[in-house]
Amino acid sequence: MELEVVHRRHQDCTRCALHKGRSRIVLGEGNPHSPLLFVGEGPGADEDRQGRPFVGKAGQLLDRMLSAAEIPREEIFITNIVKCRPPGNRTPHEEEMETCKRILREQFVSIQPRLIVTLGSAPTRAIIDPKARITRVRGQWFERKGVRMLPTFHPAYLLRNPAGKREAWEDFKRIRNAYLEVMSNMRN
Ligand code: SF4
Questions:
Q1: Pocket of ligand 1 contains residue 85 by CB under 6 Å
Q2: Which of 87, 93, 99, 141 would you call most buried, defined as having the most Cβ atoms within 10 angstroms of its Cβ?
Q3: What is the dihedral of CA 13, 18, 24, 27, to 10 degrees?
Q4: How confident is the model at residue 15 (pLDDT cuts 50, 70, 90)?
Q5: CATH architecture of the domain formed by 3-187
Q6: Which atom of ligand 1 is nearest to the CA of 13?
Q7: Mean pLDDT, all residues of the chain
Q8: Residue 151's beta-bridge partner residues?
């Protein structure tokens, strides 16, 4: 199913309580056929206002890291585990993530990414391993059904803990190399 159709089906979603506090749903944006998918935790205040993912301060840091890694933002797809802003930017509850994963699953099926980057603890636990600790697993590749997945720090965490930027940059170099490899295989 085309991604646009998936998004149209869910734009008025009220399946969990998070819909009550949202201004706008943030389904994600980017290339609907990208081999590279970034998944964050949930929209913040700026994202909720604009209806777009990663547009606040954390988003600007993500943009800088993508740009340094020479990965054009418009070539990839960026979304979150939950599509509505949790009150006060709290971490989404497990049942909210579980409920919202239905939309993410449909996005996966439509986009068919080859590489997934999970930004921070919540998406890493929701997608890769419920027991994963981001400080232990970041920078490692995991593979499921031919899709390679790499957890790294959430840019909001890096704003609070700039010392983590060096490790995050190592991760972004891994992501860039894997992305270039996938793109080259797709061309051949
Ligand atoms: S967070 Fe997800 S499941 Fe909950 S209301 Fe928003 S779109 Fe629906």
A1: no
A2: 99
A3: -60
A4: very high
A5: 3-Layer(aba) Sandwich (3.40)
A6: 8
A7: 97
A8: 118
Mean pLDDT of 81-107: 97
16 lines ligand 1 (CB under 6 A): yes
| pTM listed for this prediction | 0.97
- Gap between the Cα atoms of 67 and 135, Å rounded: 24
Model confidence at 188: pLDDT above 90: no
Cα of 182 vs centre of ligand 1, distance in Å, is 32
Distance 14 CA to ligand 1 centre (A): 6
CB distance 89 to ligand 1 below 6 Å: no
What long-range pairs does 67-73 form, CB within 8 A, spacing at least 24?
68/169, 68/172, 69/172, 69/173, 69/175, 69/176, 70/176, 71/36, 71/175, 71/176, 71/179, 73/30
Q: Kindly report, residue by residue over 143-158, the tens digit of the pLDDT.
A: 999 999 999 999 999 9
